[in-house]
Amino acid sequence: MTREELLRSLRLPVVAAPMFLVSGPELVAAAARAGVLGVLPTQNCRSAGELDEWLGAIAAAAGTGPWAVNLITHRTNTRLADDLALVAEHRPPVVITALGSPRPVMETVKGYGGLVVADVIDLGLARKAVEAGVDGLACVSAGAGGHTGHLSPFAFVSAVRDLFDGLVTVGGGIADGAGVAGAVAAGADLVYMGTRFLATTESRAAEEYKQMVIDHGPDDLVVSDGITGADASWLRPSLVAHGLDPDRLGSDAVRDYDVGVGEAKRWSQLWAAGQGLQAIRSVTSVAEVVDVLEREFHAAAARLAQVAGASR
């Protein structure tokens, strides 16, 4: 698949971004059927055997819509080789790497004609990914849920476009169609949206998690590296519920992204969210979310065209 083929296949330039313990085959397939790019994080599967089942289920249920897999390429992920072998077997059109270099997946994914996109949080990592030969960058910016960046989405896109002419995806607090239109106008090809799809019927998030996202806003988020060893955005009430002081998380956590079977990580039951949670009012289906985004996107595009026309 080429960049142009991917973009033409989508109803909206939106990616239902991978979410830890939230994105399952139901959400990914529903996103594909609705016309956006759904992404399955392989770490959500407890074993390579389960991942095999999930990838098969997505391929069968996604219809003609494209879908993607998210692979953690950090050296602590001992299951990377097994997961990559399954990727080679099931051939998702897009593979997104995170928390490590994209180099370990390049030969395999390029070999079957897939696109490799590297998840990056700063320009240094973006340059390294471009040097590795990726087809695209997922620029995780300030406001993103889970592991987050610190650059403004607009500043990130502008800087990346100076060094890269490939597929550019940007995410960070974007939760409505107007934000999608703004990001595209600024130079992005696609927009990462995770939190916006968290409170959907197809999401694997606990009902209490979905309700917490509905009930709270950006002021209820805490960004800290004290949980996983990398900066991440957490729901304050979730931290409190687990006996943690959101204002005293420290910074001594060790990075460990092993997705093999073993003792649960201390952060596996904590709940993350991005600054876009203010747009979520109720639990709805993925299809309904995409319908709303499409209306908002076209309204914003029409407004931009009107302003541009008036300024001539």
From TrEMBL:
- Family affiliation: Belongs to the nitronate monooxygenase family. NMO class I subfamily.
The molecular function GO annotations come to: dioxygenase activity; nitronate monooxygenase activity
- Recite the UniProt keywords alphabetically: Dioxygenase, Flavoprotein, FMN, Monooxygenase, Oxidoreductase
User: Which is an annotated Pfam family here?
Assistant: NMO
The scientific name of the source species is Terrabacter aerolatus
Domain of life of the organism in this record?
A: Bacteria
InterPro entries in the record, alphabetically?
A: Aldolase_TIM, NMO
Return the protein name.
2-nitropropane dioxygenase
